[in-house]
Amino acid sequence: MQAIQIHAFEPDNLCYETVDNPIPGPGEVLIRNQAAGVNPIDWKTCSGGGAAGFIESFPWTPGWEFSGEVLALGEGVTQFKVGDPVLGFIRFPHPAGCYAEQLIAPASEITLRPEGLDATTAAGLGLAGLTAWQALFDKGQLQAAERVLILAGAGGVGHLAAQLAVQAGAQVSATSSPANHAYLKTLGCQQTLDYQELDMRELADTYDLILDGVGGETAIDALLALKPGGRLVTLPSVTAAQVSAAAEGSDVTVLPIRVEPNAAQLAQLAERAAKGLLKLKIAQVLPLSQAAEAHRLSASGHISGKLVLQV
Q1: Assigned fold of 2-113+281-310
Q2: Nearest-10 Cα torsion for 308, 94, 271, 123
Q3: Mean pLDDT across 231-252
Q4: What is the pLDDT of residue 138?
Q5: Where does CATH 3.40.50.720 sit in the chain?
Q6: What is the per-residue pLDDT for 12?
Q7: Which residues form a coiled coil (predicted)?
């Protein structure tokens, strides 16, 4: 089969190569892959950052989210059958090998793809959707009628978080460039803010919960906008300690997060997407062989929406 292989942490390191077909072990499922989602953590890891500390040997195949079809079942797997359409966000932050024509997935970390959800959209739901869900509900403990501010609301996590928060009954505000304000309104955001002109002092004591997709000084400034007892969930791990330190001694809480595979939550996201209640914005679909170009586009920071590799 064909797969993307990484032989070293260095620029231009993605190789489209022929590799052996994998064999599922106990509790695992062999997948014929149809699509793989591309995320910033992918290119960061391939360049030696991100989750590189969890890569124990070379070569390895990047990618943590996929959509495909069950080809074979490992010992003890009874909840799926051959031919089932499935999707998953798997093994993170350890290598998962989703940039490949076939892959091995833990049966406990995948879910059936509901009718009405196409493979491309399903492949892009995992990381961003679960991050949004876990940040809002597991970490942020969002309650109906609370006021929520989403920093980088038009981003991969942000645009899904906005929809989930609206559906939970929250009053949602989001930051973005003015070009994305109309789009955010279609997602249900009641207030849109230009991130370039934003003065958090004017929003002091306004929000119960802030979902921070930016980090650094932007997140630190945003602490001013929290009500007493408010929570800020910060996604970028590289500045999480800095943001947490800035909140020490105050009456607000900073909660770092690292997304975790969760098949039950992913099933709920997939059902909402299949019913049109959760809309994933797809920026571009490229063939698996052009994974390096997908990483270049993602690293540019100018992509609005999800990049997906078609297998």
Answers
A1: Quinone Oxidoreductase; Chain A, domain 1 (3.90.180)
A2: 10
A3: 95
A4: 98
A5: 129-256
A6: 79
A7: none
